[in-house]
User: Which sequence fits this backbone?
């Protein structure tokens, strides 16, 4: 049963990942990539990593939808509705992708994997949480600040209007002048 | 104590969920008939006639539609509701007693993002597309407060397992001492079922938006999916915030049913009383007010856990 599920998910992940190169519509490409990630998430669940697997599914659905929105917004043809591939140099990128896949797959078979010592944890989610909040705390703090700084930086770079546009030259205008009134009465 | 049912119960969950959704649809029809001042005995005729009409109706064809994504999107809406419902305990049994049930529910309801975007995109029609994009914008607003509300309940029980969350409420319901999380959760239920104040993606100002070109059996599937999602959300509110199947005198399954119906009744009634919110306005409310509020709310069970 587990073996059957593994093969279904593994083939689905690889096939829908490959279909990213075959489809010529950006919407289909995005959904195809999403299906590949969902199958990978299912594989993680199959490995007994329930939390990681389900979180991969959760995050990838949101990320792929947002990616589709931005990808289509940046396209030069109207609304991205014309058929076009989402990458440049189709042959080259396909070759790189296939070679990388083959190398990684070969690595799986060639690596002398160590034998398991000890038993798997009773609760893999708890073990993950302990690692993230314990031994990897510094990594997570650094990562958190870097991500936050990136987000703030991206918003600052992208926004057209600053506080002087909103609050006036002496920053005294109340309420601020915004093109669209927000939902909290400003 | 919630126990796991055999594997075949996975097939029973959609049936029970559909039952609750049907009751909600009929109650909604009754409210509509009463609001229109017509006799209440006509209430059931509306949904039945509409279902028959959609079953025999022709599918609308649009130019150069992406049929694959369109159908996939439409089908994913009810599928998301049914999959999300798998982890909801009914009385003392649950179809799947998975250790990360809360995250599973969250992930399955997020599938509606992709579903509605695909359904909006696939038709290759402007209003439909705008509707799909509206759902994504709305999703960015309702999803994070909803996640924090789920985290509050999970933190209160120190577990992502829905059964443990029920067990942690044996003395006091989470709805009582986490009211903000409960309300934010209910708003999220409207959000992912795009009903009531969150019907914006399918708004009448947009000629039904994401549903504009969906007709015939597809329309039936996506409309049913909305109510299945609403029923799943109401069902999940019971173990998360209302103590699950615990209660005096009656058996646990009866308490689960009564509480689910009560939440459904409130949601169905209030949806006719609340105005539809524009996504950009709700986004500001969500990010400026609801997310900080939800973070503070999630801090409360965390501090309570520390003192235990």
Assistant:
């Amino acid at each position: 049963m587990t073996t059957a599920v593994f093969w279904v998910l593994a083939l689905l992940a690889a096939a829908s990942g490959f279909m990213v190169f075959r489809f010529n519509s950006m919407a289909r490409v995005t959904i195809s990539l999403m299906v590949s990630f969902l199958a990978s998430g299912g594989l993680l669940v199959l490995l007994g990593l329930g939390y990681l697997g389900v979180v991969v599914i959760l995050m990838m659905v949101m990320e792929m939808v947002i990616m589709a929105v931005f990808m289509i917004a940046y396209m030069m043809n109207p609304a991205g509705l014309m058929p076009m591939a989402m990458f440049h140099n189709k042959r080259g990128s396909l070759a790189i992708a296939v070679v990388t896949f083959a190398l990684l797959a070969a690595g799986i078979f060639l690596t002398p994997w160590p034998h398991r010592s000890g038993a798997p944890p009773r609760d893999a989610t708890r073990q993950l949480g302990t690692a993230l909040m314990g031994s990897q705390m510094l990594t997570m703090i650094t990562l958190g600040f870097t991500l936050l700084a990136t987000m703030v930086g991206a918003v600052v770079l992208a926004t057209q209007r600053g506080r002087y546009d909103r609050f006036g030259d002496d920053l005294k205008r109340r309420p601020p002048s915004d093109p669209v009134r927000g939902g909290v009465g400003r | 104590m919630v126990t796991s049912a055999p594997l075949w119960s996975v097939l029973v969950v959609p049936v029970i969920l559909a039952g609750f959704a049907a009751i909600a649809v009929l109650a909604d029809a009754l409210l509509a008939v009463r609001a229109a001042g017509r006799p209440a005995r006509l209430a059931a005729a509306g949904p039945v006639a509409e279902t028959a009409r959609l079953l025999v109706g022709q599918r609308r064809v649009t130019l150069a539609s992406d049929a694959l994504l369109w159908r996939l999107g439409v089908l994913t809406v009810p599928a998301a509701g049914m999959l999300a419902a798998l982890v909801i305990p009914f009385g003392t049994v649950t179809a799947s007693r998975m250790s990360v049930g809360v995250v599973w529910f969250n992930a399955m309801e997020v599938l509606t993002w992709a579903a509605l975007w695909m359904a909006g995109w696939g038709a290759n029609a402007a209003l439909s597309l705008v509707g799909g994009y509206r759902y994504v914008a709305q999703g960015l607003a309702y999803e994070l407060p909803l996640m924090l509300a789920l985290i509050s309940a999970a933190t209160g029980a120190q577990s992502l397992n829905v059964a443990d969350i029920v067990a942690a409420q044996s003395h006091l319901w989470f709805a009582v001492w986490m009211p903000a999380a409960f309300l934010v959760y209910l708003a999220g239920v409207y959000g992912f079922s795009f009903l009531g104040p969150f019907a914006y993606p399918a708004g009448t100002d947009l000629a039904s938006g994401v549903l504009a070109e969906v007709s015939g059996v597809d329309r039936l599937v996506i409309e049913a999916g909305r109510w299945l999602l609403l029923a799943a959300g109401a069902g999940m509110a019971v173990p998360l915030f209302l103590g699950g199947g615990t209660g005096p005198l009656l058996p646990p399954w009866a308490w689960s049913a009564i509480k689910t119906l009560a939440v459904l009744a409130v949601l169905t009634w209030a949806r006719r009383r609340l105005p539809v919110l524009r996504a950009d306005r709700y986004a500001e409310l969500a990010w400026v007010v609801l997310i900080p509020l939800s973070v503070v709310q999630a801090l409360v069970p965390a501090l309570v856990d520390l003192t235990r």
